[in-house]
């Protein structure tokens, strides 16, 4: 599982409004073009809703997307 | 792409054709590379280049009669100065260096050939045959080896030079018999012992041998060197004066090829058209070449090393590269179209593994400048569009390449943006104004002003059609979608009674000419030229006029745009590349969509090579050229100066043009459509979608970031609406901000926002997106 503790740390203080639970680092699965990746994301301990941090979406994830697209 | 298609594309690009000197050289010495090494002072490397092709380079390099010089591009009387003195450079090289390429030992073929004559042609035949693995028996009638070579003064060809080459030959499978008696009987027995015999006639002792052997020197086959009977070959007769050493070498070489083919049972004549001098197709421009005469020979011994270096440096290293010189995109991939065609072919043929040409295929602007400057009209855009279409069919088009542009197209043919109405007063429709998506999105106020102006000045009724022409579909490799869009346009046109169309955009013009040829189209500029100017029209100052690339083959449009600019009181100057040679602004072919960095590079070249301010007459060109801060105005800004906003958009990313508030082109088009329907045709507005009620507030830097990430206001509005209605959102206690996400199709959008006290107003702090899909999160 890929972990990005520094990025996740920036999302302390966010809570899931539906459940009222704070977001904690938790496992999530991302898929793209047939590949599946396990990553740790800020996640609601109750309903499982996650945030994909901006830093991750525009950084590592974009890189992987481009590799998978053979860019 | 079939291999046959690749061959056709490859044939068009002449960059890999040999230069004139090499094609003219009977044995095709790589003179260009030789000169490059000489210019760099790398004499040993230069010598290796000679020795790679030349037999006995220490001899031939001294005495070659250099027909290459006659062909040298610099020596062209029309635009050159003086040919490179290649012969003198060779001489300088071989006197300075004895370097040879390492000869790779060839396994013996187990066959032998005979050569009669110790002249250059016989020695060449022996040299070549031995290098191919044949044992060679050389019969020299004289006591000394060399034939006519022995007649050269020592100053020109020192004895040691020949001795040195003969030493090398002695290390090969060559036996040389001097004082050999050679007559018809001996030749007959040689023919029996060996696979064939070559008679090198460049030897005084052999001047009459053809009489004995029963062939005429004039009747020797010019290609195979065949001399009238199987296995017998001959060349280099000294009767055909003046004696040409390089021709003698060619004859020996041709005979060696024939003997080799004979040994293999292959055709003696097939595919030999490139042996000996031939015409090259390479084109080399002298446009940027500084004229300089040849370096004078000062000493009696030829060029000194320094003089040789200087003279070699005059070599312009002939190549074509005409398209690469004018196109930042073609230059970016560090090759030329022939190479690119191969890469694209390989890319399309990949079953497993990386498709390395995707970015290249996606990034071409399809502007066609390459075809204009190419001697063979190689159109990289046509090749790339064909490849894109194939990638789409194979389901191999990377999703991120064009889907933003195609979503834009979807919107522009949706009921929110489409409008087709006849003249509101008369219901007649002899004309219809088609402003195009870009003008409608960038400056909708110009659409209204131009329409009012046309209606006031044209008879027969002027209608209006707001609808995409389909160009983005063609660019994205989607002929299916293009056909749908053009069909939809055609039916609107028919409903209006087939009006003559007035087009503000030359991309629409180009697309309709190709795909809807039954429609009569004229450009807005040609139409306006014959009409009175609107009140208050005009400007001043001097502008660099930028023709859109889609006007390249529309000279009438370009002339009208210039005439209008003049009428409007401004001075126009042409950029370095203009008219038929105009450059793309970086938007064409969806370059900007697939590769924003490349588009920026293209704009940078255009706006730094030419002085600002610029005058454009395509809305997209205007927005694109201004992306790095160049001042650009549109011809309509001069026509309707009272509507002018800032002369350049505030955003460096004008894909979504900045205006007041988070206006984007979608919104502008939708607003324009509704405004025209309401104000001109007195229709009720289209009902609003719920998400459209969400009002956004973005600081300029947030808006720029959002634009650069290709996130539409609509995507943000939908994400907020979804969060606000479902309650599925994250909340930050301290700041009171929310984070919400929304995945309308392939892309997931995220937004951090905070509700404002008044109504449905939300302040947006940031927005981002990704294509990876989160499993289990809606």
TrEMBL record, chain A:
<dbReference type="InterPro" id="IPR055902">
    <property type="entry name" value="DUF7479"/>
</dbReference>
<dbReference type="GO" id="GO:0003677">
    <property type="term" value="F:DNA binding"/>
</dbReference>
<protein>
    <submittedName>
        <fullName>DNA-binding protein</fullName>
    </submittedName>
</protein>
<feature type="domain" description="DUF7479">
    <location>
        <begin position="13"/>
        <end position="71"/>
    </location>
</feature>
<dbReference type="Pfam" id="PF24292">
    <property type="entry name" value="DUF7479"/>
</dbReference>
<keyword id="KW-0238">DNA-binding</keyword>
<dbReference type="InterPro" id="IPR054656">
    <property type="entry name" value="DVU_1557-like"/>
</dbReference>
UniProtKB/TrEMBL annotation, chain B:
<dbReference type="InterPro" id="IPR051460">
    <property type="entry name" value="HdrC_iron-sulfur_subunit"/>
</dbReference>
<dbReference type="InterPro" id="IPR017900">
    <property type="entry name" value="4Fe4S_Fe_S_CS"/>
</dbReference>
<protein>
    <submittedName>
        <fullName>4Fe-4S ferredoxin</fullName>
    </submittedName>
</protein>
<dbReference type="Pfam" id="PF14691">
    <property type="entry name" value="Fer4_20"/>
</dbReference>
<dbReference type="InterPro" id="IPR017896">
    <property type="entry name" value="4Fe4S_Fe-S-bd"/>
</dbReference>
<keyword id="KW-0560">Oxidoreductase</keyword>
<dbReference type="InterPro" id="IPR009051">
    <property type="entry name" value="Helical_ferredxn"/>
</dbReference>
<feature type="domain" description="4Fe-4S ferredoxin-type">
    <location>
        <begin position="353"/>
        <end position="377"/>
    </location>
</feature>
<dbReference type="Pfam" id="PF13450">
    <property type="entry name" value="NAD_binding_8"/>
</dbReference>
<dbReference type="InterPro" id="IPR004017">
    <property type="entry name" value="Cys_rich_dom"/>
</dbReference>
<dbReference type="InterPro" id="IPR036188">
    <property type="entry name" value="FAD/NAD-bd_sf"/>
</dbReference>
<keyword id="KW-0004">4Fe-4S</keyword>
<keyword id="KW-0479">Metal-binding</keyword>
<dbReference type="GO" id="GO:0051539">
    <property type="term" value="F:4 iron, 4 sulfur cluster binding"/>
</dbReference>
<keyword id="KW-0408">Iron</keyword>
<dbReference type="Pfam" id="PF13534">
    <property type="entry name" value="Fer4_17"/>
</dbReference>
<dbReference type="GO" id="GO:0016491">
    <property type="term" value="F:oxidoreductase activity"/>
</dbReference>
<dbReference type="InterPro" id="IPR028261">
    <property type="entry name" value="DPD_II"/>
</dbReference>
<feature type="domain" description="4Fe-4S ferredoxin-type">
    <location>
        <begin position="306"/>
        <end position="338"/>
    </location>
</feature>
<keyword id="KW-0411">Iron-sulfur</keyword>
<dbReference type="GO" id="GO:0046872">
    <property type="term" value="F:metal ion binding"/>
</dbReference>
<dbReference type="Pfam" id="PF02754">
    <property type="entry name" value="CCG"/>
</dbReference>
């Amino acid at each position: 599982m890929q972990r990005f503790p520094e990025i996740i740390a920036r999302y302390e203080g966010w809570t899931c409004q539906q459940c009222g639970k704070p977001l904690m680092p938790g496992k999530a699965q991302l898929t793209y073009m047939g590949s599946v990746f396990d990553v740790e994301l800020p996640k609601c301990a109750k309903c499982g809703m996650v945030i994909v941090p901006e830093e991750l979406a525009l950084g590592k994830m974009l890189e992987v997307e481009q590799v998978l697209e053979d860019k | 792409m079939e291999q046959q298609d690749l061959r056709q594309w490859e044939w068009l690009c002449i960059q890999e054709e040999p230069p004139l000197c090499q094609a003219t050289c009977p044995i095709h010495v790589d003179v260009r590379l030789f000169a490059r090494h000489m210019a760099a002072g790398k004499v040993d490397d230069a010598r290796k280049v000679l020795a790679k092709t030349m037999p006995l380079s220490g001899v031939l390099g001294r005495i070659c009669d250099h027909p290459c010089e006659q062909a040298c591009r610099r020596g062209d009387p029309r635009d050159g100065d003086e040919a490179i003195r290649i012969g003198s450079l060779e001489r300088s090289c071989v006197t300075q260096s004895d370097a040879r390429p390492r000869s790779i030992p060839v396994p013996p073929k187990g066959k032998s050939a005979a050569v009669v004559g110790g002249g250059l042609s016989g020695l060449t035949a022996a040299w070549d045959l031995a290098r191919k693995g044949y044992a060679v028996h050389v019969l020299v009638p004289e006591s000394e080896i060399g034939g006519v070579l022995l007649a050269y003064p020592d100053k020109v060809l020192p004895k040691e030079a020949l001795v040195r080459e003969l030493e090398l030959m002695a290390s090969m499978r060559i036996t040389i018999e001097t004082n050999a008696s050679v007559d018809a009987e001996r030749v007959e027995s040689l023919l029996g012992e060996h696979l064939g015999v070559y008679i090198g006639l460049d030897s005084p002792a052999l001047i009459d041998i053809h009489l004995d052997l029963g062939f005429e020197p004039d009747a020797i086959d010019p290609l195979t060197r065949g001399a009238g009977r199987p296995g017998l070959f001959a060349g280099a007769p000294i009767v055909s004066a003046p004696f040409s050493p390089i021709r003698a070498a060619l004859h020996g070489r041709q005979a060696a090829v024939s003997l080799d083919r004979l040994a293999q049972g292959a055709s003696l004549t097939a595919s030999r058209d490139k042996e000996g001098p031939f015409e090259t197709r390479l084109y080399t421009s002298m446009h940027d070449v500084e004229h300089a005469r040849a370096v004078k020979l000062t000493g009696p011994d030829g060029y000194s090393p320094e003089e040789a270096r200087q003279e070699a440096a005059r070599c312009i290293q002939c190549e074509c590269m005409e398209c690469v010189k004018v196109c930042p995109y073609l230059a970016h991939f560090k090759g030329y179209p022939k190479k690119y065609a191969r890469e694209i072919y390989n890319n399309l043929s990949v079953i497993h593994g990386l498709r390395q040409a995707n970015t290249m295929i996606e990034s071409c602007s399809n502007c066609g400048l390459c075809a204009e400057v190419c001697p063979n009209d190689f159109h990289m855009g046509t090749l790339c569009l064909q490849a894109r279409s194939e990638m789409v069919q194979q389901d191999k088009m990377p999703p991120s390449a064009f889907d933003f542009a195609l979503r834009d197209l979807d919107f522009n043919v949706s009921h929110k943006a489409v409008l087709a109405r006849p003249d509101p007063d008369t219901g007649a429709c002899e004309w219809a104004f088609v402003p195009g998506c870009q003008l409608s999105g960038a400056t909708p106020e110009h659409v209204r002003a131009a329409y009012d102006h046309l209606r006031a000045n044209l008879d027969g009724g002027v209608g209006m059609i707001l609808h995409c022409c389909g160009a983005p579909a063609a660019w994205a490799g989607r002929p299916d979608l293009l056909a749908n869009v053009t069909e939809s346009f055609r039916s609107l046109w028919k409903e209006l009674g087939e009006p003559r169309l007035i087009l503000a955009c030359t991309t629409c013009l180009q697309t309709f000419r190709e795909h809807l040829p039954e429609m009569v189209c004229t450009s807005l500029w040609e139409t306006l030229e014959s009409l009175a100017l609107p009140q208050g029209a005009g400007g001043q100052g001097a502008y660099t006029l930028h023709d859109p690339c889609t006007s390249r083959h529309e000279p009438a449009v370009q002339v009208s745009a210039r005439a209008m600019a003049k009428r409007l009181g401004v001075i126009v100057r042409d950029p370095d590349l203009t008219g038929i040679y105009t450059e793309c602004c970086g938007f064409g072919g969806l370059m900007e969509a697939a590769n924003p960095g490349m588009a920026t590079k293209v704009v940078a070249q255009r706006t730094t090579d030419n002085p600002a301010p610029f005058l454009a007459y395509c809305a997209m060109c205007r927005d694109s050229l201004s992306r790095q801060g160049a001042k650009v105005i549109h011809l309509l800004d001069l026509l309707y100066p009272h509507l002018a906003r800032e002369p350049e958009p505030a955003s460096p990313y004008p894909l979504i043009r900045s205006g007041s508030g988070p206006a984007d082109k979608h919104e502008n088009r939708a607003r324009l459509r509704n405004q025209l329907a309401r104000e001109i045709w007195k229709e009720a507005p289209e009902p609003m979608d719920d998400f459209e009620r969400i009002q956004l507030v973005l600081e300029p830097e947030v808006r720029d970031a959002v634009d650069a990430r290709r996130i539409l206001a609509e995507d943000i509005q939908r994400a907020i609406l979804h969060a606000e209605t479902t309650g599925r959102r994250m909340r930050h206690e301290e700041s009171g901000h929310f984070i919400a996400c929304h995945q309308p199709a392939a892309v997931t959008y995220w937004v951090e926002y905070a509700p404002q006290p008044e109504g449905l107003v939300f302040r947006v702090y940031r927005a981002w997106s990704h294509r990876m899909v989160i499993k289990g999160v809606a």
